[in-house]
Amino acid sequence: MIKNARTLITSGVLFVLLALLVTLLPMPYVIWSPGRTYNFLAEVDSVPVISVESFDVYETNDQVLLAKISTTSPSLPPSLLSVFFAYLSPNQEVLPTASVIDGSEPSLIGNVGTSSPSVRKTNSIVAALREAARSEPGIFVQPLPMVTSVSASGTAAGILQVGDLVIAIDKTYPATALEVVEAIEAHKTPESVLIEFMRDGVLREEAIPTRDSTTDPGTATIGAAFGLGFRYEPEVDVIPEWVELSEGMMLSIAVYDLLTPGDLAGGGVVAGAGTVDAAGGVGRVDGIVERIAAAERDHARAFVIPEANCEDLRGKPNIRLISVRKLDDALKGIQSVFSSQAQEPVKGCE
To answer: Omega of the bond prior to 117 within 30 degrees of 0, cis?
Structure first.
């Protein structure tokens, strides 16, 4: 009898220990959950998140929320129990750790490529200014060739910087990056090319000697690459930490709201997430289910969702969805949803 009791107790203890081990065992997964929302029309320490120079912005009572993801860190894997409950939750997602490169929030994985925060900021501002310029005088956007990289061994090193806008080459005015390259290649080495460029609003001019390309001997180069940039007014600035957060679209919506009269959302709360390019094209983001749950939690009335994300939904959310392909779709959709005099139907994710 005593032997059987000892066996039973030992088995029970081993069972409990085994259950604890299995339950608390770290798993090679990350868990996405609803994260914070960030109001781009708010202030941080009495400083507006978005500031506009030399332009009278309009007061607005709107809240334009960027919905984010909260994620566990790949370096601190969740337990089996946590993974189990997250798998059952409609507002969480479980992903293999291998799908996350580092410990940063995975909201940018697979949807903005290698674009830097500064590029996303510029695209967001340019897209908003282009929309606002349709009705507001004093706003303009001018596409210009821009320096995108400078080789440390090139002749342009120490003279040109990434972000410099090319105004003229040898007193001619190239409209595209290709025209800049062609103008440089028209020289015979070591002739100098006269480049007029703008940096931080200041016009500069430098003569830069050419040399033979290492990959294409006989072709003149200065060791710089060029792409598309923009000169625009008014100047729009964003708190640096918020630039890091933004994928683009909600920043564009907030900038447009400040530059145009009236409350875009009628003084209400609109949330969303999505990338945006300089032409106003909207792209998908990851974790859309968790983002929508964050917007619902924070009392948003509508959520602006990239059309490409509609296929990622699980069931029908308890929030009005505005499905968009372009920034213009988002602006019109928000106005219609929040206006008592809506004229056009708003596309959702049906």
So the answer is: no
Q: Which two three-digit tokens encode residue 88?
A: 């059952």
Q: CA-to-CA distance for 114 and 112, rounded, in angstroms?
A: 6
211 and 220 in contact (C-beta within 8 Å)? Answer: yes
Give the integer Cα–Cα distance in Å for 162 and 77: 39
Tokens of 28: 């090679």
Are the C-beta atoms of 193 and 242 separated by less than 8 Å? no
Q: Which residue has the tokens 């630039």?
A: 243
Measured CA distances, 290 to 100, 135, 172 (Å): 17, 36, 51
Distance CA 67, CA 73 (A): 19
Question: Residue 50 is encoded by which pair of tokens?
Answer: 């978005």
Look at residues 270, 247, 275 and name the one whose alpha carbon lies nearest to residue 334.
270
| Identity of the residue numbered 16 | V
Instruction: Catalogue all structural domains in the chain, each as residue range(s) with its CATH number.
Output: 29-134+235-338 (3.30.230), 141-233 (2.30.42.10)
Taking the C-alpha atoms of residue 5 and residue 17, their distance in angstroms, rounded to an integer, is 18
Amino acid at residue number 244: E
The answer on pLDDT for 342 being more than 60 is no
Please say whether the beta carbons of 67 and 294 come within 8 A. Answer: yes
Contact 180, 145 (CB under 8 A): yes
Taking only the tens place, the pLDDT of each residue in 214-259 is: 888 889 999 999 999 999 999 999 998 888 778 899 999 999 999 9
The residue whose two tokens read 């690459």 is 225
Residues 247, 285: contact at Cβ < 8 Å? yes
- 350/292 Cα distance (integer angstroms): 16
Confidence band for 314, pLDDT divided at 50, 70 and 90: confident
Q: How far is CA 283 from CA 78, 138, 326, 328, in A?
A: 31, 29, 9, 13
Reported as a pLDDT band with limits 50, 70 and 90, residue 15 is low
Q: Are 190 and 210 in contact (CB under 8 A)?
A: yes
User: Whole-prediction pTM value?
Assistant: 0.83
* Residue 34 C-beta-side C-alpha neighbours within 13 Å: 14
Q: How many CB atoms are located within 10 Å of the residue 90 CB?
A: 9
